[in-house]
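Give me the fold.
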Amino acid sequence: MIRKLLKKILGENFTENNAKLATVNFAIVLLMFVLSGVMLFFLPEQVSILHNGDTQYPLPSVLAVWLLPTIALIINIGFIKQKRLSAMNTFIFIILLIVMMASYISQI
């Protein structure tokens, strides 16, 4: 069912060869969304997303926690549409997950 839906949305770019990588990448992105939802209960109301020396740029945590998973989802769909799925992309998504969690834990 999910494979048919992805084939309908993404067209012929979603083949059997890259189906495993796409599944792993979507699982990582889903894990990012779940962990962000859990971390939302522990983060302060304002989360600083950008530091420029002494200047900090805070966002409400309700908005900030969904920023990285949403970007990762858009990038993953872009990789599929451009036929650029590889094991390196999966590795980068894992690194992004680790960096995301480290930044959330550092702000608790």
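The helical segments are 2-10, 19-39, 61-64, 67-81, 87-106.
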